[in-house]
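note to self: dont lose this again. the chain is below, predicted strucutre after it. 410 aa total, dont forget to put it in the shared folder this time
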Amino acid sequence: MTTQLNLQEHASTESVLSATQLELLLEHAPALELSIEPVASEGRVFRLTAGSTVGAVEIGDLSIMIEPKIGVPQLLSLAAYAMGLFRQQEQRPFDFAERQSLLDALALALASAARRAFGQGLMHGYRTEEQALRTIRGRIRIAEQLRRRLGAGLPVEVQFDEFTDDIIENQLVRAAVARLGSMRLRSDEARRQLSWIAATVEQVTAVEFRPKQVPAVRFDRLNDHYRGVVGLARLVLRHGAFESGRGGVRASGFLIDMNQLFQEFLTASLRDTLRVSERTLRSDRETQEIWLAEDRRLRLRPDLSWWNGPICTFVGDAKYKNLSGSSVPSSDLYQLLAYATALDLPGGLLVYAQGDAKPASYRVIHAGKRLEVASLDLSGELAAVFRRVERIAQEVLVLRDEARSERLPA
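---
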């Protein structure tokens, strides 16, 4: 019998757990960012407190759902936008159901996108094949023929283009269906829709994609109708990172780190608003090496930085924390000060999710650097969220222009 645990991001709940269930939870608690405490004098009752990781996980007979504060549809919309599946000026291509669990909402949205994409059948494309055949097809691989066959006539090493539906777009969809199908969907309709997709792509090769190695797909007029279903498939595969086995117990799930999502969404939305590329407004993965100390020591990786060629004119940091009305942690301000110091900038911007911090400004004594704190509310209609991003963008421009006036020639 399955035990369902329903939690909410940064909230606590009390649950009765068997010794086996407690052992499983304790083993996977770090990956789930889950705190587990016994309730005094209550036997097998434990207080479970979720962190900033949300999603759905299956561990043995435990089905764990950690709901995001902003709601499932908003979470998935922000994740889709951060992955570049649509832009601010475009209509959101997905309809994530309000009253569905995270996995069910994903499955139903994937099925809806698949029906649009597969309207005229599975897409076909050319794939280069290299085989040894008894008839000549395509181009003979002379070097391989000599190396492997020592000049023998047959079989012939050839290379040719195969027109097939076994292409990367369909492989991604099949892999996403397999990943969702390995978890417990709560909706009968979601299970039916997922089965329909599985039957449609049954002849496509089953490929296992690691979360950090999910390939990107280039779209043109020939495959643009696949943009939605491939995008959702990549979303499922990218965040389907929780998978492990211990003895006869298997764990799998779909998890999103809200800290990472907030940073990715803020970066993508600022680029969109400011109309700049990733070469100009860079994330921590795209920036060049930055050092705080001499002799290339104390390496830093700011979440956001604006570059005019080799010159940095803005630095910022994104924070998604549960401060519960507390003041901005000094450690966060010290981190931003280190970025501004290493890059020789007059200041920097610290952006929190709303509710975590109030806007503020700090002038650092002796150094004269200005540390700005802003907040971004992620709730409500996406159009309203993007309007709030515009205010953050204006603060970015003010700090950038201040740095430009000091560092760039007139």
